[in-house]
Amino acid sequence: MAGDVLDEVRRLIADCGHTRYSIAKATGIPAQQLHRLMQKDVGLSLASLQRLLAHLGYEIKLQKRG
Asked: What are the Cα distances from residue 10, in Å, to 13, 41, 64?
């Protein structure tokens, strides 16, 4: 499941039209970490994921199964 979420995040980054450098500057996430995320070498902490998604215009919502 985490892989599915990160794959979707990678797609959002690729499709957003911003450079990784500009995303890094706006979110405080190091450009190197974004590069490694895109290369599928690392994931992100929840706090970083929330900042990144907020920058891209998305948010995380929890929903109970069932």
From this structure: 5, 12, 25
